Amino acid sequence: MTDVLTTLAQVAVLTFVVTSMVALGLSLTVVQILTPLKDAKLVLLGLVTSFVVAPAAAWGIAALFGLSDDQTLGLLLLGVAAGAPFLPKLAQLAHGEVPYAVGLMVLLMVVTVGYVPLVLPLLVDGVTVSAWDIARPLLLLMLLPLAVALVVRARYPDAARLAPVLNRVSTTALALGIGAAVLVGLPQIWDQVGTGLLLATLLFVVVCLAVGYLLGGSGRSQRVVTSLGSAQRNLSAALLIAGTSFVGTPVVLVTVMVASLLLTAALLLVAAELGKRAGAGTRPAARAPADG
């Protein structure tokens, strides 16, 4: 049964990633994606929160909670890896600026490919990370579908009508993937109860959200995206590194997996609540009854 759930989770997440990237490519243009990134200050602050604040927060929080060396390393892997396919979906849920979310996602992924192999060996003795191993799944599963869809949208504008259907497919696949992954990882999650990892992960999310929002732009829609982009880490890259560079220390992989599930669930709840509040704020006020 575990093998079936594991396969279901893998297929569902893969389906989510590809369909969400295609849907975004069909619903946006290259100009819409790149325009927010012309703001140099916004881009710089987004990079600082994801590649300076997040790793520092992971390190400091791990020390604060007295996590083991392997748990600290697992949380640190999440701290150094940024850019994830979940960000545009989170932006949609939170009523944030989706084109900026796509542009920021691509920027963070590209920087992660060069940043992690350079920085991680400086933080952890004896570890080597291949930039191509990190880049390959990002290029094939995210950037390539996005680029193809953008070309199709530019050539055939009517293709944009497929985006809502693909968005529904991606949302369903995400729900199935997270549900199956939680069922598979339940024993590992239970084992981490009382170790401080769960609370440390939640505090990590809160710190990244808060700093990202404070530094993340001039308006609510941009601040929300930078906030969520800072907290939503590149889980694929972190899991890949944990599973290949630390084969002899399974606790690292378990830590990344458990923290990833908790982090994703927490951000989905936060994004949904932000979207609910934004929606409530835009509703017209109820008309007062007329006198008499």
Concise account of the structure shown:
By secondary structure, the chain is mostly helical.
Summarize the helices and strands and which ones pair or pack.
Blueprint: H1 2-27, H2 30-34, H3 40-64, H4 69-80, H5 86-93, H6 98-123, H7 131-155, H8 163-192, H9 197-215, H10 220-231, H11 235-245, H12 250-282
Kindly describe this structure.
There is one protein chain. The protein is mostly helical and 292 residues long. The chain is built from 12 helices and no strands. Helix 5 (86-93) packs parallel to helix 12 (250-282), helix 6 (98-123) packs parallel to helix 10 and helix 9 runs antiparallel to helix 10. The longest helix has 33 residues, at 250-282. Residues 284-292 have low confidence and may be disordered.
